[in-house]
Each structure stands twice: as structure tokens, then as C-alpha cells.
Amino acid sequence: MKIAVVTDSTAYLTPEEAAANHIHVVPIPFVVDGKSYREGVDITTAEFYHLLKTSSTFPSTSQPSIGEMMELYQGLADQGYDAVISIHLTSSISGFLNSISQLAEEMKDTIKIVPFDSHITVKLMGYLALEASKMVQNGDDLDTIVTKLTQLRDTINEVFVVDDLQNLVRGGRLSNASAFVGSILKIKPLLTFHNEHHAIEAFEKVRSMKKAKLRCEEIFKEDLAKVDYPVRGLVFHANAPEAGQKWLDKLQAEYPDINFELTYFGPVVGTHLGQGALALAWMQDTTKKPLE
Prior knowledge:
- With 292 residues, the chain is an alpha/beta fold.
- The protein is 38% helix and 23% strand.
- It contains 10 helices and 13 strands.
- It has helices at 15-20, 45-54, 66-78, 96-106, 122-137, 142-153, 166-170, 209-224, 241-254, 267-273; strands spanning 3-8, 23-26, 29-32, 35-38, 60-61, 83-88, 112-117, 157-161, 188-192, 201-206, 231-237, 259-264, 278-284.
- The strands form 3 sheets. Strands 10-9-8-13-11-12 form a 6-stranded mixed beta sheet, with helices on both faces.
């Protein structure tokens, strides 16, 4: 069986990573001041954050069209692919995966489409796509790929901090906004997807960015003590590369055996988090301990 791997632009894979691993990346559209852009195609991340500073309206995000997805999957079928595993941002913040599930039924006689909910987004999802590609190259079948991806997905944990919750609240992406909205301007809220609904959830109120990062580090240390596999660490930033690099350098010094990577929140995710957001995330490092 010839299997393709598809993901979306919120995986924030570099073009080189996608090309080298034969991963098909679907751009997610967003709108700023009435103009539509395709993430990673029509605008750079730096240009987006500049727009965010000067825009007169709150940006919005949407989904790729069904027609675009049908064309992609049909094209893969025409290239001789029998199946595609389509890995996308969590269904808790976007209806995109539900649309793909409906399309899978409509196109079942053309190509087998297996939608896979990452329960997350950003480069963590990117690593799921990279791992899927590796398994395809190794000749694993669809069931094995889905089983192993699920195992890897279950190792993901993350905690992030935003300057304030206004973008998340305005965009309707915070599951428990009412508990935190009263003190939006006074706190640095800690958030996570790591809950039973895989939705963005604020879980602690911290009084400064410095204390927020220290609390993230505490949670990271606590989780490391519970796992029996090596992890890779990721530090994310929303147009704050210097702050992100400084935090990464501190973590790398404290945990020299862990490989840390600096990555970013692109336009679609940055729309909801706002500038200055930082995050610390981790997952099994399959280069040190492959999935079984």
C-alpha cells in the first residue's frame, strides 16, 4: 500500500523538512483587516506580527475549502497513493478535522483517508507528521502507523504563558474563560492543552512572566520524574525570539542530556495567543528511543 502524509501549516515545518520527508502541507487561511492570507504562502510570520500591531480589527482564522482538500486527495490518488494519513490541529479549536472526516466518507472509493487528531498543533504536531513519514518509509501499515502515532501523541505535554487572555477570549478559544477573564490585565495565565478535552485551558494565575516561566519549569521537572523515556524539549515564542532563546539556553544548561529546540507560534496560532507568548513543551525523543 502506498501511503501519503498530509498535515496543515500550523505544524510549522520548514519547507525543507516537508520536502525531505514527502509531507504535503495544507495552508490554513486567516483574515486581517478584511484581507485573506494563506499561512506560510502569502505572508511571512514576521510580516503577520507587524500586521497584528497595526490592524484595526481582530484577525480571524478559517479552514481550507473542501474543494481544495478534494483536489489534494484526488491528486494523491492520481499519483498512485492508496491511502493518506491526514494529521491536523486539534478538533477542540477547529472544525477542520471534522470536515476531513466527512470528506473521507465521500472519497472512500477514490482513496482511503485516515484523519488523525493531533490533540495539539504547532511543531509538536509537526513531529507527529515527521514520525508518520518515517514509518511510511519503513513500510509500516496504516494500523501500525496510527497505533504508534497515538502512543507518541500521548507523550506530549506543554504549558504556555501569554501576556494576557484578550486574544483568546475574543477568539472564543479559551475553554474556561469565565474563571479568568476578571483579572485579564493583572496576571500572566498559564495555559495547556493537556486535559481530557484537549482544549486550551487556563489553570493557574501567576503575577509575572518570570514567575510564570519558573512555574513552567517546575511542571516540566515534575513530569520528567514520571516518564520512562527520553524527551525532546521545545521552546516556543510569538515574535519574541530573544526571550525564547534566553529561556532555551537556561533550560539547556540545566538539562544537558535533553535536546531543546527553539520554534515559534505562526500566524494562525499567534492570532489567538498574541505577541510575546512563550511556551515550554516536551514529548518522547524517538531519535533516542524509537516507538515500538
